[in-house]
Amino acid sequence: QVQLVESGGGLVQVGGSLRLSCAAPESIAGINTMAWYRQAPGTQRDLVATISRGDETNYADSVKGRFTISRDNAKNTVYLQMNSLKPEDEAVYYCYMKRTAGWSTREYWGQGLRVTVSS
Asked: Which of 78, 80, 83, 85 supports an S-S bond with 34, CB 3.0-4.6 Å?
């Protein structure tokens, strides 16, 4: 089973920044949607941001103006730049990718990155 490889999580102080990265194998071509989700303890997994192959982006209201999602199609990589971090941003962050070709849709998930925000 193909799994995405995430990096960049860790401990950061309130107001600090982190950059998450997530890469898919180069053998997976034509990835359409890339996204980041997060899940805090005891809560459901929520969508943080999405980016289309054409670089259209959408953000959860809670992160607008602070987080930026971007992608490098040549590297099959998606990034999440997180600035002005707040305690409520603390969660496990998962990257997600979807590839649609004709009638076939494949979805891929990262293993999860823990982001801890200390006050």
From this structure: 78
